[in-house]
Amino acid sequence: MERGLFISFEGPDGSGKSTQIEYLKEYFLEREIACVFTREPGGTHIGEEIREIILDKQNNDMTDLTEAFLYAASRSQHVEQVIQPALEAGKVVVCDRFVDSSIAYQGYARGLGDLVEEINRYATGNLLPDITFFIDVDPKVGKRRISSGERDRLESEKIRFHRKVYQGYIAMAEKDPDRIVTVDGSGTREEMRDFIMEHLTVVLKERGML
User: Fold this and answer.
1) Is the peptide bond before 129 cis (omega within 30 degrees of 0)?
2) pTM of the predicted model, to two decimals?
3) How many domains does the chain fold into?
4) What kind and span of H or E run contains 132?
C-alpha cells in the first residue's frame, strides 16, 4: 500500500483555518477518500492533556523553553499514535497546525531560533507535511476575529508577538514554496476554498488518489 498524503493548515490566530478544514471534510467525504482530521497541540489523549496546560491563561509564568518542549512532546505522541499509522495505511491526514506553528511561534516570536526546529526533528522523526496551506491574514485582522473572552494564553499575547509570528510564516513560505502554498486570506471564505480545492485536486490526481 502506498503512503498516504499529509496536509497541514497554518496561519495566524483567527485566520480562518477551521472553516477551510470543514470544507475539506466535505470534499473528502463526497469523494469517499479515507482521511483523518486532527489538530495540534492535541490529537491524542496525552496531547490533549498537554494542550490544556499550554493554552491555560493561568499558566502565564510558563517559560519559552517549557512551551517549546511541551509542543514537541505533544507532537511526538501525535505522530507516533495517529499521523504515522494513518499515512502508512494510505489515508489522507489533515492537521490543524504542525511543526511550522512551533517554528513561527516559538522559533521566531519567542526568539528560540533553530533550537525549535532541532527538537522537532527528534519529536517527529523528520516528518513534514506534503502540503501546507498557509492562510495569509494580517495578524491584527485575525486577532479582532477572536473575542477577548475566548482567547487562550497565546491568543492573548500582544499584537507585537503576533506580528513576529506572522513574519515567521512569511519567511518560511518564501524559503519552502514547493511545500507551503500561500492562500490569500483577504478574500471570501468561498474564494479561499476554491483556491485550496483547485490546488489539492491536482495533487490528488498526480498521486492517483482521484
Assistant:
1) no
2) 0.94
3) 1
4) strand 131-136
Name the burial class of residue 117, with classes exposed (0-12), middle (13-18) and buried (19+) by CB atoms within 10 angstroms of its CB: middle
What grid cell was written down for 126?
523528520
Range of the domain at 197: 5-206
Q: What is the CATH number of the domain that holds 27?
A: 3.40.50.300
Q: Render each residue's pLDDT in the chain as its tens digit; 210 residues.
A: 689 999 999 998 888 899 999 999 999 999 999 999 999 999 999 999 999 999 999 999 999 999 999 999 999 999 999 999 999 999 999 999 999 999 999 999 999 999 999 999 999 999 999 999 999 999 888 777 776 667 888 888 889 999 999 999 999 999 999 999 999 998 899 999 999 999 999 999 998 888
* H/E stretch holding 183: strand 180-184
Strand order in the sheet with 5-10: 35-39, 92-96, 5-10, 131-136, 180-184
Number of residues written out for the chain: 210
| Residues contacting residue 176 through CB under 8 Å, at least 6 positions apart | none
